[in-house]
Protein backbone atom coordinates (compact mmCIF):
# COMPACT_ATOMS: atom_id res chain seq x y z
CA UNK A 1 0.00 0.00 0.00
CA UNK A 2 1.40 3.42 -1.01
CA UNK A 3 1.76 6.29 1.46
CA UNK A 4 2.11 9.98 0.50
CA UNK A 5 4.20 12.53 2.44
CA UNK A 6 4.16 16.30 2.14
CA UNK A 7 7.21 18.22 0.90
CA UNK A 8 5.78 21.55 2.04
CA UNK A 9 3.42 24.24 0.81
CA UNK A 10 3.85 25.30 -2.83
CA UNK A 11 3.86 28.93 -1.68
CA UNK A 12 6.83 28.38 0.62
CA UNK A 13 8.91 25.65 -1.04
CA UNK A 14 10.59 26.33 -4.36
CA UNK A 15 10.71 23.73 -7.09
CA UNK A 16 14.44 23.22 -6.54
CA UNK A 17 13.92 22.63 -2.80
CA UNK A 18 11.08 20.21 -3.51
CA UNK A 19 13.35 18.24 -5.86
CA UNK A 20 16.10 18.08 -3.20
CA UNK A 21 13.58 16.88 -0.55
CA UNK A 22 12.24 14.27 -2.95
CA UNK A 23 15.73 13.00 -3.68
CA UNK A 24 16.52 12.83 0.05
CA UNK A 25 13.32 10.85 0.61
CA UNK A 26 14.27 8.39 -2.13
CA UNK A 27 17.71 7.92 -0.56
CA UNK A 28 16.14 7.17 2.83
CA UNK A 29 13.81 4.63 1.26
CA UNK A 30 16.75 2.97 -0.46
CA UNK A 31 18.51 2.75 2.91
CA UNK A 32 15.45 1.12 4.51
CA UNK A 33 14.38 4.24 6.37
CA UNK A 34 10.94 5.86 6.38
CA UNK A 35 11.26 9.44 4.98
CA UNK A 36 8.23 10.81 6.81
CA UNK A 37 9.58 10.21 10.30
CA UNK A 38 8.17 7.31 12.34
CA UNK A 39 6.81 4.49 10.21
CA UNK A 40 3.00 4.29 10.33
CA UNK A 41 1.42 1.10 11.63
CA UNK A 42 0.06 -1.21 8.99
CA UNK A 43 -3.65 -0.79 8.46
CA UNK A 44 -5.45 -3.92 9.64
CA UNK A 45 -7.68 -5.55 7.07
CA UNK A 46 -11.36 -5.53 8.00
CA UNK A 47 -12.45 -9.12 8.79
CA UNK A 48 -15.16 -10.82 6.77
CA UNK A 49 -18.66 -11.57 8.02
CA UNK A 50 -17.67 -15.26 8.24
CA UNK A 51 -14.66 -14.48 10.47
CA UNK A 52 -16.73 -12.31 12.80
CA UNK A 53 -19.51 -14.94 12.87
CA UNK A 54 -17.00 -17.64 13.90
CA UNK A 55 -15.65 -15.49 16.73
CA UNK A 56 -19.16 -14.52 17.84
CA UNK A 57 -20.28 -18.15 17.95
CA UNK A 58 -17.20 -19.10 19.97
CA UNK A 59 -17.97 -16.34 22.48
CA UNK A 60 -21.64 -17.35 22.64
CA UNK A 61 -20.97 -21.07 23.17
CA UNK A 62 -20.93 -21.07 27.03
CA UNK A 63 -24.50 -19.72 27.10
CA UNK A 64 -26.01 -22.58 25.09
CA UNK A 65 -28.00 -25.13 27.05
CA UNK A 66 -27.33 -28.05 24.73
CA UNK A 67 -25.63 -29.19 21.55
CA UNK A 68 -28.84 -28.85 19.55
CA UNK A 69 -28.99 -25.11 20.27
CA UNK A 70 -25.35 -24.75 19.26
CA UNK A 71 -25.89 -26.68 16.03
CA UNK A 72 -28.89 -24.51 15.11
CA UNK A 73 -26.82 -21.31 15.39
CA UNK A 74 -23.94 -22.79 13.42
CA UNK A 75 -26.20 -24.23 10.73
CA UNK A 76 -28.29 -21.10 10.15
CA UNK A 77 -25.17 -18.94 9.87
CA UNK A 78 -23.58 -21.45 7.53
CA UNK A 79 -20.77 -22.18 10.01
CA UNK A 80 -21.46 -25.87 10.78
CA UNK A 81 -18.34 -28.03 10.43
CA UNK A 82 -17.65 -31.75 10.21
CA UNK A 83 -15.09 -33.69 12.27
CA UNK A 84 -12.30 -32.54 9.92
CA UNK A 85 -13.22 -28.88 10.28
CA UNK A 86 -14.82 -28.54 6.85
CA UNK A 87 -17.85 -26.26 6.52
CA UNK A 88 -21.08 -28.22 6.13
CA UNK A 89 -23.60 -25.39 6.59
CA UNK A 90 -26.67 -25.22 4.37
CA UNK A 91 -25.47 -21.95 2.90
CA UNK A 92 -28.07 -19.53 4.28
CA UNK A 93 -25.40 -16.86 4.82
CA UNK A 94 -22.80 -17.93 2.29
CA UNK A 95 -23.38 -14.83 0.13
CA UNK A 96 -22.38 -12.67 3.10
CA UNK A 97 -19.50 -14.89 4.20
CA UNK A 98 -16.64 -13.29 2.24
CA UNK A 99 -17.84 -9.69 2.43
CA UNK A 100 -15.94 -7.28 4.76
CA UNK A 101 -18.14 -6.88 7.79
CA UNK A 102 -18.12 -3.10 7.47
CA UNK A 103 -19.32 -3.24 3.88
CA UNK A 104 -22.52 -5.24 4.33
CA UNK A 105 -25.61 -3.30 3.27
CA UNK A 106 -29.37 -3.63 3.54
CA UNK A 107 -29.40 -4.89 -0.05
CA UNK A 108 -26.94 -7.66 0.88
CA UNK A 109 -29.20 -8.81 3.72
CA UNK A 110 -32.27 -8.67 1.48
CA UNK A 111 -30.51 -10.79 -1.14
CA UNK A 112 -29.97 -13.45 1.51
CA UNK A 113 -33.47 -13.35 2.99
CA UNK A 114 -35.89 -12.79 0.10
CA UNK A 115 -35.65 -16.29 -1.43
CA UNK A 116 -36.95 -18.00 1.75
CA UNK A 117 -38.92 -15.20 3.43
CA UNK A 118 -42.26 -16.58 2.21
CA UNK A 119 -41.44 -20.28 1.93
CA UNK A 120 -39.50 -20.72 5.18
CA UNK A 121 -40.70 -17.78 7.23
CA UNK A 122 -39.63 -19.06 10.65
CA UNK A 123 -36.14 -20.00 9.47
CA UNK A 124 -35.73 -16.70 7.60
CA UNK A 125 -36.75 -14.72 10.67
CA UNK A 126 -34.29 -16.53 12.91
CA UNK A 127 -31.46 -16.08 10.43
CA UNK A 128 -32.21 -12.36 10.14
CA UNK A 129 -31.99 -12.03 13.93
CA UNK A 130 -28.71 -13.91 14.01
CA UNK A 131 -27.20 -11.82 11.22
CA UNK A 132 -28.27 -8.74 13.18
CA UNK A 133 -26.54 -10.11 16.30
CA UNK A 134 -23.27 -10.76 14.42
CA UNK A 135 -23.29 -7.25 12.92
CA UNK A 136 -24.07 -5.74 16.34
CA UNK A 137 -21.06 -7.62 17.74
CA UNK A 138 -18.93 -6.23 14.90
CA UNK A 139 -20.07 -2.69 15.73
CA UNK A 140 -19.29 -3.21 19.41
CA UNK A 141 -15.75 -4.19 18.41
CA UNK A 142 -15.38 -1.06 16.31
CA UNK A 143 -15.35 -2.99 13.02
CA UNK A 144 -18.34 -1.16 11.54
CA UNK A 145 -20.46 1.90 12.25
CA UNK A 146 -23.91 3.23 11.46
CA UNK A 147 -27.27 1.47 11.53
CA UNK A 148 -27.50 -2.30 11.47
CA UNK A 149 -28.66 -3.36 7.96
CA UNK A 150 -30.28 -6.50 9.39
CA UNK A 151 -32.41 -4.61 11.94
CA UNK A 152 -36.14 -5.23 11.59
CA UNK A 153 -37.97 -2.22 13.06
CA UNK A 154 -37.77 0.85 10.86
CA UNK A 155 -35.62 -1.03 8.36
CA UNK A 156 -36.38 -4.47 6.90
CA UNK A 157 -39.94 -4.22 8.23
CA UNK A 158 -40.50 -1.58 5.54
CA UNK A 159 -39.04 -3.72 2.77
CA UNK A 160 -40.26 -7.26 3.44
CA UNK A 161 -43.88 -8.50 3.67
CA UNK A 162 -45.18 -9.08 7.16
CA UNK A 163 -45.28 -12.64 8.37
CA UNK A 164 -48.73 -14.02 9.06
CA UNK A 165 -49.65 -12.85 12.54
CA UNK A 166 -52.00 -15.63 13.53
CA UNK A 167 -50.71 -19.16 13.20
CA UNK A 168 -52.41 -22.38 14.13
CA UNK A 169 -50.71 -23.81 17.19
CA UNK A 170 -49.57 -27.34 16.50
CA UNK A 171 -49.70 -29.42 19.67
CA UNK A 172 -47.71 -32.59 20.23
CA UNK A 173 -49.92 -35.57 19.41
CA UNK A 174 -50.82 -37.26 22.70
CA UNK A 175 -52.26 -40.64 23.65
CA UNK A 176 -55.50 -40.84 25.62
CA UNK A 177 -54.40 -41.63 29.16
CA UNK A 178 -56.84 -44.57 29.26
CA UNK A 179 -54.71 -46.26 26.57
CA UNK A 180 -51.35 -45.58 28.19
CA UNK A 181 -51.29 -48.64 30.55
CA UNK A 182 -51.71 -51.06 27.63
CA UNK A 183 -49.05 -49.21 25.66
CA UNK A 184 -46.61 -49.35 28.59
CA UNK A 185 -47.28 -53.07 28.98
CA UNK A 186 -46.23 -53.47 25.36
CA UNK A 187 -43.06 -51.47 26.01
CA UNK A 188 -42.13 -53.83 28.85
CA UNK A 189 -42.01 -56.74 26.40
CA UNK A 190 -38.95 -55.16 24.81
CA UNK A 191 -35.49 -54.97 26.35
CA UNK A 192 -34.31 -52.39 23.80
CA UNK A 193 -32.72 -49.26 25.23
CA UNK A 194 -35.21 -47.06 23.37
CA UNK A 195 -38.24 -48.86 24.83
CA UNK A 196 -36.83 -48.61 28.36
CA UNK A 197 -36.04 -44.92 27.89
CA UNK A 198 -39.57 -44.20 26.67
CA UNK A 199 -41.16 -46.05 29.59
CA UNK A 200 -38.91 -44.18 32.02
CA UNK A 201 -39.94 -40.88 30.42
CA UNK A 202 -43.63 -41.79 30.74
CA UNK A 203 -43.25 -42.85 34.38
CA UNK A 204 -41.41 -39.64 35.26
CA UNK A 205 -43.53 -37.33 33.02
CA UNK A 206 -40.22 -36.04 31.67
CA UNK A 207 -39.10 -34.60 28.37
CA UNK A 208 -37.33 -37.12 26.14
CA UNK A 209 -34.18 -34.97 26.03
CA UNK A 210 -33.92 -35.01 29.81
CA UNK A 211 -34.18 -38.81 29.81
CA UNK A 212 -31.81 -39.39 26.90
CA UNK A 213 -29.17 -37.17 28.49
CA UNK A 214 -29.53 -38.65 32.00
CA UNK A 215 -26.43 -40.20 33.59
CA UNK A 216 -25.98 -42.48 36.57
CA UNK A 217 -24.46 -39.61 38.51
CA UNK A 218 -27.94 -38.01 38.63
CA UNK A 219 -29.55 -41.09 40.23
CA UNK A 220 -29.77 -41.56 44.00
CA UNK A 221 -30.94 -45.16 44.41
CA UNK A 222 -30.84 -44.97 48.20
CA UNK A 223 -33.33 -42.10 48.35
CA UNK A 224 -35.14 -43.12 45.13
CA UNK A 225 -34.51 -39.76 43.52
CA UNK A 226 -33.47 -38.50 40.11
CA UNK A 227 -31.99 -34.98 40.18
CA UNK A 228 -31.75 -33.29 36.78
CA UNK A 229 -29.20 -30.43 36.89
CA UNK A 230 -30.28 -26.94 35.89
CA UNK A 231 -28.15 -26.86 32.75
CA UNK A 232 -30.18 -29.73 31.31
CA UNK A 233 -33.59 -28.27 32.10
CA UNK A 234 -35.63 -26.07 29.76
CA UNK A 235 -36.40 -23.61 32.56
CA UNK A 236 -32.77 -23.57 33.71
CA UNK A 237 -33.65 -24.83 37.21
CA UNK A 238 -32.75 -28.09 38.96
CA UNK A 239 -35.59 -30.62 38.84
CA UNK A 240 -36.02 -33.51 41.28
CA UNK A 241 -38.10 -36.55 40.37
CA UNK A 242 -39.15 -39.13 43.01
CA UNK A 243 -38.70 -42.57 41.45
CA UNK A 244 -41.52 -45.09 41.63
CA UNK A 245 -40.81 -48.78 42.17
CA UNK A 246 -41.35 -49.49 38.48
CA UNK A 247 -39.01 -46.64 37.50
CA UNK A 248 -36.34 -48.25 39.70
CA UNK A 249 -36.98 -51.59 38.00
CA UNK A 250 -36.44 -49.94 34.61
CA UNK A 251 -33.12 -48.61 35.90
CA UNK A 252 -32.13 -52.08 37.10
CA UNK A 253 -32.78 -53.40 33.60
CA UNK A 254 -30.85 -50.49 32.11
CA UNK A 255 -27.93 -51.31 34.43
CA UNK A 256 -27.66 -54.72 32.79
CA UNK A 257 -26.90 -52.94 29.53
CA UNK A 258 -24.40 -50.70 31.28
CA UNK A 259 -22.60 -53.72 32.73
CA UNK A 260 -21.52 -54.92 29.28
CA UNK A 261 -20.06 -51.56 28.27
CA UNK A 262 -16.33 -50.80 28.63
CA UNK A 263 -17.12 -47.69 30.69
CA UNK A 264 -19.56 -49.42 33.06
CA UNK A 265 -17.85 -48.03 36.17
CA UNK A 266 -18.16 -44.42 35.16
CA UNK A 267 -20.80 -42.33 36.89
CA UNK A 268 -21.12 -40.20 33.78
CA UNK A 269 -22.31 -43.13 31.67
CA UNK A 270 -25.77 -42.60 30.17
CA UNK A 271 -28.74 -44.46 31.68
CA UNK A 272 -29.87 -45.39 28.20
CA UNK A 273 -26.79 -45.41 25.95
CA UNK A 274 -26.85 -45.20 22.18
CA UNK A 275 -25.42 -47.83 19.89
CA UNK A 276 -22.11 -46.00 19.58
CA UNK A 277 -19.95 -46.19 22.69
CA UNK A 278 -20.14 -43.15 24.95
CA UNK A 279 -23.12 -41.57 23.20
CA UNK A 280 -26.70 -40.97 24.27
CA UNK A 281 -29.72 -42.27 22.41
CA UNK A 282 -30.50 -40.35 19.25
CA UNK A 283 -33.48 -37.99 19.43
CA UNK A 284 -35.00 -40.06 16.61
CA UNK A 285 -34.87 -43.36 18.50
CA UNK A 286 -38.09 -42.83 20.43
CA UNK A 287 -39.79 -41.25 17.43
CA UNK A 288 -38.85 -44.22 15.24
CA UNK A 289 -40.27 -46.64 17.81
CA UNK A 290 -43.60 -44.78 17.98
CA UNK A 291 -43.82 -44.62 14.19
CA UNK A 292 -42.96 -48.28 13.80
CA UNK A 293 -45.80 -49.17 16.16
CA UNK A 294 -48.09 -46.75 14.28
CA UNK A 295 -49.22 -45.00 17.46
CA UNK A 296 -49.74 -41.61 15.81
CA UNK A 297 -48.37 -39.87 18.92
CA UNK A 298 -45.10 -38.23 19.99
CA UNK A 299 -42.85 -38.95 22.97
CA UNK A 300 -43.51 -35.43 24.26
CA UNK A 301 -47.24 -36.06 24.02
CA UNK A 302 -47.12 -38.42 27.02
CA UNK A 303 -46.56 -35.37 29.22
CA UNK A 304 -49.93 -34.14 28.03
CA UNK A 305 -51.39 -37.58 28.81
CA UNK A 306 -50.00 -37.26 32.33
CA UNK A 307 -51.47 -33.77 32.69
CA UNK A 308 -54.93 -34.96 31.63
CA UNK A 309 -54.78 -37.99 33.95
CA UNK A 310 -53.58 -35.95 36.93
CA UNK A 311 -56.33 -33.38 36.39
CA UNK A 312 -59.12 -35.92 35.88
CA UNK A 313 -58.18 -38.70 38.26
CA UNK A 314 -56.33 -37.10 41.20
CA UNK A 315 -57.04 -34.38 43.73
CA UNK A 316 -53.62 -32.80 43.49
CA UNK A 317 -53.63 -29.00 43.03
CA UNK A 318 -52.86 -27.61 39.58
CA UNK A 319 -49.62 -26.00 40.77
CA UNK A 320 -48.24 -29.31 42.03
CA UNK A 321 -49.07 -31.04 38.75
CA UNK A 322 -47.36 -28.26 36.81
CA UNK A 323 -44.32 -28.56 39.05
CA UNK A 324 -44.17 -32.31 38.38
CA UNK A 325 -43.95 -31.39 34.69
CA UNK A 326 -41.14 -28.91 35.48
CA UNK A 327 -43.25 -26.03 34.19
CA UNK A 328 -42.44 -22.55 35.43
CA UNK A 329 -44.99 -21.36 37.99
CA UNK A 330 -45.20 -17.65 38.62
CA UNK A 331 -46.54 -15.49 41.42
CA UNK A 332 -47.31 -16.60 44.96
CA UNK A 333 -48.00 -20.17 43.84
CA UNK A 334 -44.49 -20.48 42.44
CA UNK A 335 -42.95 -19.14 45.63
What features would you describe in this structure?
The structure is a single chain. It contains 14 helices and three strands. It has 335 residues and is mainly alpha-helical. It folds into three domains: 8-43, no CATH class; 49-158, Orthogonal Bundle (DNA polymerase, domain 1); 177-334, hpI Integrase, Chain A (Orthogonal Bundle). Strands 1-2-3 form a three-stranded antiparallel sheet, with no helix packed on it. A hairpin with a 4-residue loop joins strand 1 (219-220) and strand 2. The protein is elongated, with a radius of gyration of 30 Å. Mean pLDDT is 82; it is low at 165-169.
What is the 3D shape?
Answer: elongated
Largest sheet at a glance? 3 strands, antiparallel
Average the pLDDT over all residues and give the rounded result.
82
**Poorly predicted ranges (pLDDT <50, ≥5 residues)?**
165-169
Helix segment tally: 14
- The top-level CATH class of the largest domain is Mainly Alpha
N- and C-termini, Cα separation: 66 Å
Strand order of the largest sheet: 1-2-3
CATH topology of the largest domain: hpI Integrase, Chain A
Could you tell me the number of beta strands?
3
Beta-sheet strand percentage? under 5%
Rg, Å, rounded:
30 Å
CATH architecture of the largest domain: Orthogonal Bundle
Assembly form of the protein: single chain
